Amino acid sequence: MLRIMTDAERMGMGGPERGAAAGTRGAHSLLPGSGGAGKAIVVMPAYNAESTLEATLADIPPGSVDEIILVDDCSRDGTVALARRLGLTVIEHERNLGYGGNQKTCYRTALERGADVVIMIHPDYQYDSRLVPFLVGLLRTHHCDVMLGNRIRTRREALEGGMPVYKYFANRVLTIVENLWMGQNLGECHSGMRGYRREVLETIPWERNSDDFVFDSQFLVQAVHFGFRIGDIPVPVRYMKEASSINFRRSMTYGLATLGVLVRWTMHKLRWMRSPLFEARGKEA
Asked: Is the C-alpha dihedral spanning 60, 122, 219, 280 positive or negative?
């Protein structure tokens, strides 16, 4: 079950409050955005993001989006209260649905609210939200259908930004394998900053994907399967204590699951097995 905070509730709370820190602003200064080229919505899958949410929000350039939706996955801190105070559209899960489950709520809600472009960014300040208008622009002009933030421009930059050494090399190996397998040339396939055109979200059967971290890998392979154009843009690396990250064991599980998605896709293409992940919407899962 979900609880969606209504516009009336938000209006009744007196609107967003400005933070004491320089450069911090409420969501009202970001809106309206888009310049009349279709509605752009930022979605934030959140879990215990109270300490980083305001900084992430403050970096989004004014006027670049029309709405910001935060979906909270049963945080134990003050994420929800802060998001409401900042004037965001807030959705609360009544139980923890996982990273993939959170994204499903994000995209479902964005489509229901009329999004033409959807940008997903983690509210943990790991990704530079100043790049939001660039992602929006490349999607609006149909240069790409899917956009990723690429954290690995150079090895030195990634490691100096705090990325653990084992994660850097695992990311490099897995991305190379995925690029070769999918026929792509992406700088990174495992970014938590992504953008989609509405057509992508209406075509890909992402509701059938995992509720765990492999959701992102499944979505990327699905985008290739359905013929969408994928691009990326460099984004600075920010690994810190507050940034969300999975441990070594879960990273290994994620990597193996990603390879499993590629094998499953190949078997589906060869008609050795049928996978609902790569069946068009409307067909029985």
From this structure: negative
Are 193 and 127 in contact, with CB atoms under 8 Å apart? yes
Asked whether residue 8 is domain-assigned, the answer is no
Cα atoms found within 13 Å of the Cα of residue 50, Cβ hemisphere only: 11
Q: Which residues of 213-243 are buried (b: 16+ CB within 10 A; e: fewer)?
A: bbbbbbbbbbbbbeebebbbbbbebbbeeeb
Question: Would you state the structure tokens that stand for residue 218, as one six-digit string?
Answer: 């499944």
Is residue 48 a part of any domain in this protein? yes
CA nearest neighbour of 98 among 14, 214, 176, 5: 214
The alpha carbon of 159 is separated from its chain's Cα centroid by a whole number of angstroms, namely 22
Phi, psi of 128, deg, nearest 5: -85, 105
Number of domains in the chain: 1
- Classify residue 4: in a domain, yes or no: no
Contact 65, 33 (CB under 8 A): yes
Give me the CATH number covering residue 89: 3.90.550.10
Residue 93: which domain range? 29-275
Mean pLDDT of successive 10-residue segments in the chain (285 residues)?
45 35 42 66 97 96 97 97 98 97 98 98 95 97 97 90 91 97 96 97 98 97 98 88 70 94 98 96 67
Distance in angstroms (rounded) separating the CA atoms of residues 40 and 33? 8
The answer as to whether 98 is a domain residue is yes
